[in-house]
Predict the 3D structure of the following.
Amino acid sequence: MKLNGISDKDGATPSSKRVGRGIGSGKGKTAGRGVKGQKSRSGVSINGFEGGQMPIYRRLPKRGFSNAMFTSDYNEVSIARLEQAVEAKKLDVKSPITAEVLREAGVIRRVRDGVRVLGGSEAKSKFNLEIAGASKSAIAAIEKAGGSVKVLAPAKSEEADA
């Protein structure tokens, strides 16, 4: 078999309906768009428009705000996921575990603003974590197993200085 000999089965890709090609085609004249008006033309932009009535997104009150400048995007990792990586021999508990080490081990895909460890299960290994944050239950579980958690100060971004 050669790559240039591969093709779809007959009828697998139906040809697209050619619109606006005469009355005999079944989609002639207005091409299925109805008659006149804004919707029949190209470049329609009427989402949220309610015929001149005050739109619902303006009638309803707004509450709160999202201060995107100061929000942090953390990688959340559970103790169970760390234990899984240790059992698979991807993490070495003797050396300090940082965000870079977790990325190389495949526990997280990319380092964002840091790693935050969440509890919810018992820690069997003595983790020596150097991370951006951890929940109280996670810190308690790791210290109970004989490990340590060092919470690093968030890295100052250059945008915040400007």
Observations:
- The chain has a mean pLDDT of 88.
- The CA atoms of residues 85 and 156 lie 30 Å apart.
- The domain at 75-153 is CATH 3.100.10.10 (Ribosomal Protein L15; Chain: K; domain 2).
